[in-house]
Amino acid sequence: MSPELEKCPRSLLVCEKSNFLNEKSRHDIHVSKHNFNYKVSLIIKHLLNILMFQMCFDCMWMPLCPQISVLIPECGILPANISSVIHSFSPYYLVRDLPVYQLLEETFLEPLVKKGNFYALSYNTKIDEDNAIALLSSGQLILSLDKDTYEQLGLEGRPSLYNHKKAMRFVVTLDLTDKSLTPGTKRYQRVLSSLKDRLPLRYDFLFTKYNTGSDEDQTLNKLLSQYSYEEHKPAFSQHTLKNMPCPTLYPSDIQGKTLSCDPHHFLEWLGAVNLDISCENAADSFLSTYVCPEPQSSVSQALLCTVTGFISPENVFVLLQELRQYFDEPKFTPWISLTVHGFMDSPVSWGATEHGFLKGGENLYNFVCFKNQDYWLHMATGAQDGCPP
After folding, report:
1. Which Pfam families does the record cross-reference, listed alphabetically (predicted)?
2. Which stretches of the chain are DSSP H helices?
3. pLDDT by residue (tens digit) across 365-378?
4. Is the pLDDT of residue 50 over 80?
5. Over residues 139-158, mean pLDDT
6. Contact indicator for 160, 169 with CB cutoff of 8 Å
7. How far apart, in whole angstroms, are the C-alpha atoms of residue 112 and residue 177?
């Protein structure tokens, strides 16, 4: 084996156990702060069956094809309530060659950005090679810049946490809701001049918004009309999977010491299922020797539906709330799993926490929801990320 393949970069997995009805539960905070998501997986396990949803948000420049996948056992259609949630997801837009300063223009800043629920992410920019831009729903504009661009712009920032011996990358954070950046102030004019005149950066962007009003829609449509853009909505496909082993989980055993599967092995199994890797370690398999971790149960067949898109944290939270209600009626399934993957090349992971790529760019979280409203929360990052909140 190559020495490079034997090296395993540092990773971090944080596990929490709580109850959705607990007033101190932080599930809503974790969902809302994970701003840029390209992949969500949902699994509902039955005694001998499994229902799985995998949602992947549009990230055409990712190594893997982004998709939302829905896996349903012994069934040909989605449950009506979950189908309704998926079909209510917001559209997203791919805007070509947009100047960054447009995000700061007063006609765009005041009626849309400062209202919240709007997200923008530079498209086809690699966080370890290119300049990457992100606008959070909180109004924070994050610019992850190489040294030359940073020095030419002349904006105040800090060295990236993931530089080597010399600082070759810098991060500029602009809180567009701060009074000092109100249109007309000296600081606002200086920042606008840097992005408009000194170094007019232009990139393709992904836009999405959640349940904005008519005024906000009008503002966005006015901006879009000035540039070449594409509006995208989810696209579906499906096929059937059969004879799948599945790990066993119990609410009281999050560490997997006795009754449940170990959390690392559980997340590994989720990845194998999402990639359509066999978990049976068949003797005639030359591609994979992976086996589903113990304890496990059997799955007879499942329907896998695939959907592509770029979906906001608000949409993910609505889906999570709907999944909690899945147990309102008696079900055989003991648990549901919801996994959300962040963009590999996003400048941030949770909130404004800086995100780097290194060898994989992983940043994800997973909910395992149980019948009694208990849940497990797994938060995983790669080598170039801070500890999840």
Report:
1. Ribonuc_P_40 (PF08584)
2. 3-6, 27-33, 80-87, 106-109, 147-153, 186-193, 214-224, 263-274, 313-324
3. 888 888 899 999 98
4. no
5. 94
6. yes
7. 11
